[in-house]
Specification:
The chain has 8 helices and 4 strands, in the order ββαααβαααααβ. The chain is mainly α. The protein has a two-stranded antiparallel ribbon with strand order 1-2. Strands 3-4 form a two-stranded antiparallel ribbon. Helix 5 packs across helix 7, helix 5 runs parallel beside helix 8 and helix 7 runs antiparallel to helix 8. The longest helix is centred in the N-terminal third of the chain and has 48 residues. The termini are far apart.
Length: 220
């Protein structure tokens, strides 16, 4: 449809709108016809194969996620809450006085424990006596070396007049070390003061007790 109003030409003259519209449409330098669109290149066959394979592999996973989402969303929410609480605890815990216990090198230096080699050498010496049926001597040897080891760790706790029963009650010893030492001391007291010869069972109990004693760390 041609414009209903007149058009002013370059010379200032009025030209009917229809003629002006026809003149513009007749200008071959102006493109009015639709431009044909280039054909879209088809993807290579290998790419289609990859897409098909991905659909076969990921399809079941996607369907599982959809079916499991009512439960999965709560699990994810619980994990998010747990992570948030952990982060808050890490940030607020120190302000509340909580500190994780760490054993630094300086802490190790403030503790004493017989070396593995020393404990093994003692057990070998005592085992030789026990193998000869000398259970009393073997048990007494364990007690003597244990007293020496306590003195090495805490010289202030042991003096020549200290008895095995007194040492077994020392509060400075860890509970496990005190109980183990007391077990050995009890067997030796039976041997020395009750004049009751120790048997293989007594020796095994004392040996196990020393093995537990040697694992304990004594604060210097």
């Amino acid at each position: 449809m041609s414009p209903p109003f007149p058009v002013t030409t370059s010379t200032g003259e009025l030209q009917p709108a229809g003629e002006a519209w026809d003149a513009v449409r007749a200008d071959s330098s102006i493109q009015y016809a639709p431009i044909p669109q280039p054909k879209t290149a088809q993807p290579p066959a290998w790419l289609e194969t990859v897409f098909k394979w991905l659909a076969e592999v990921l399809g079941p996973i996607g369907r599982w996620l959809v079916n499991a989402w009512p439960v999965l969303k709560w699990a994810l929410l619980a994990l998010a809450i747990a992570a948030l609480l952990y982060l808050l605890w890490k940030l607020i815990g120190p302000a509340l006085g909580w500190r994780p216990q760490k054993h630094s090198d300086s802490d190790r230096e403030d503790e004493w424990q017989p070396t593995h080699a020393a404990a093994l050498a003692l057990l070998e010496d005592a085992d030789r006596l026990a193998a000869e049926g000398r259970f009393d001597e073997a048990t007494h040897l364990l007690l003597q070396r244990s007293v020496t080891q306590i003195a090495d760790a805490r010289p202030d706790l042991v003096d020549p007049s200290s008895t095995a029963r007194e040492l077994a009650a020392l509060p400075a010893l860890p509970d496990a070390a005190r109980a183990a030492f007391g077990t050995i001391a009890t067997r030796v007291e039976r041997s020395l003061f009750a004049l009751r010869t120790l048997g293989a069972d007594d020796w095994q109990i004392a040996r196990d007790a020393y093995a537990a004693f040697a694992l304990e760390r004594i604060a210097r």
